[in-house]
């Protein structure tokens, strides 16, 4: 299921969420710049080596492989590597607990994370407040990194991405807005269905089927996704808001209208079209 919009209207402007989205995009654009410069450096290295060996040409495959090595080393430096953190524990390794939260593997990785943050982050920020939300987001990211470290301490693969922190936001949303609903796009074979489902159902499906089940049945060494980071962030985010639920500012859930050919949700929360759940 792909979320398109939630039913909760924010009462404040989500400046922190916007800033986090902008920061992640800016860092990724910087990554592209670094990758481009490393490709140029790799080309110079291979060209010089070819000249020393007397080769009449520059092997394109060698340039590509060297560029990949240089970029992987750069990610290894700024991403969180559990084995390095356990082995050295130096200040530089602890810095990667923060820097790794803003690095992404590709455009799909980046946009997928930021789309979830865009949909759910504004409401959590609205409920927590701008400044507490900053600390909550950072704490969720650190908890996510800690969970991945505990369950896969020997990994030499850099852990990158905002997924763990955003999973914390999703966990918080589950607790803070249990009666909210989410308009989703559901691929069914070759068809696409627009369905409005309870946020609780959507988030639990995401948590169980996209994270908990894969983490349980996929060996850590074979996985390319930090499932335990997602699980850790989600659980900590939900637990934090559950413990503080009586202190957090509560207000009625305001419904947003969902225009569309497949149905709509009016201001009173009445869905006119396809609907699932309670």
Structure, explained:
There is one protein chain. With 278 residues, the chain is mainly α. It has a single domain (2-273), classed as Rhomboid-like fold. The chain is built from nine helices and five strands, in the order βαααααααββααββ. It has helices at 15-53, 60-78, 82-87, 91-99, 107-128, 130-151, 163-176, 199-217, 227-243, and strands at residues 2-6, 181-188, 191-198, 263-265, 271-273. The strands form two sheets. The protein has a three-stranded antiparallel β-sheet. Helix 1 packs antiparallel against helix 5 (107-128), helix 5 (107-128) runs parallel beside helix 7 and helix 6 (130-151) packs across helix 7 (163-176). The chain is elongated, with a radius of gyration of 22 Å. The two termini are 18 Å apart.
Give a short synopsis of this structure.
The chain has 278 residues and is mainly alpha-helical. It is 60% helix and 10% strand.
Strand order of the largest sheet: 1-2-3
Large-scale geometry? elongated
Specify Rg, calculated over alpha carbons.
22 Å
Examine the secondary-structure arrangement and name the CATH architecture. Answer: Up-down Bundle
Into how many domains do the coordinates divide?
A: 1
CATH domain fold name: Rhomboid-like fold
Query: How far is the first residue's CA from the last residue's CA?
Result: 18 Å
Identify low-pLDDT runs: 259-271
Helical stretch tally: 9
The helix/strand class is mainly alpha
Strand/helix succession: EHHHHHHHEEHHEE
Average predicted local confidence, pLDDT: 85
In total, how many beta strands? 5
Oligomer: single chain
């Amino acid at each position: 299921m792909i979320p398109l919009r939630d039913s909760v209207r924010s009462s404040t402007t989500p400046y922190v969420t916007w800033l986090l989205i902008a920061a992640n995009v800016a860092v990724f654009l910087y990554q592209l710049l670094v990758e481009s410069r490393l490709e140029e450096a790799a080309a110079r290295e291979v060209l010089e080596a070819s000249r020393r060996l007397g080769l009449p040409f520059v092997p394109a495959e060698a340039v590509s492989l060297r560029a990949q090595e240089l970029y992987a080393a750069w990610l290894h430096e700024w991403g969180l590597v559990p084995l390095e953190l356990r082995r050295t524990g130096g200040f530089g390794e602890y810095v990667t607990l923060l820097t790794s939260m803003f690095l992404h593997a590709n455009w799909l990785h980046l946009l997928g994370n930021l789309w979830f943050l865009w949909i759910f982050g504004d409401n959590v920020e609205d409920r927590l407040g701008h400044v507490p939300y900053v600390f909550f987001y950072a704490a969720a990211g650190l908890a996510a990194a800690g969970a991945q470290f505990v369950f896969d301490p020997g990994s030499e693969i850099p852990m990158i991405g905002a997924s763990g922190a955003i999973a914390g936001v999703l966990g918080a949303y589950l607790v803070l807005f249990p009666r909210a609903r989410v308009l989703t796009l559901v691929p069914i074979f070759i068809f696409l269905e627009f369905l409005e489902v309870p946020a609780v159902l959507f988030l639990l499906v995401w948590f169980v089927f996209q994270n908990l089940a894969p983490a349980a049945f996929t060996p850590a060494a074979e996985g390319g996704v930090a499932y335990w980071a997602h699980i850790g962030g989600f659980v900590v985010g939900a637990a934090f808001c559950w413990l503080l639920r009586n202190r957090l500012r509560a207000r009625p859930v305001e419904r947003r209208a969902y225009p569309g050919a497949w149905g709509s949700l009016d201001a009173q929360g009445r869905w006119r079209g396809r609907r699932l759940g309670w």
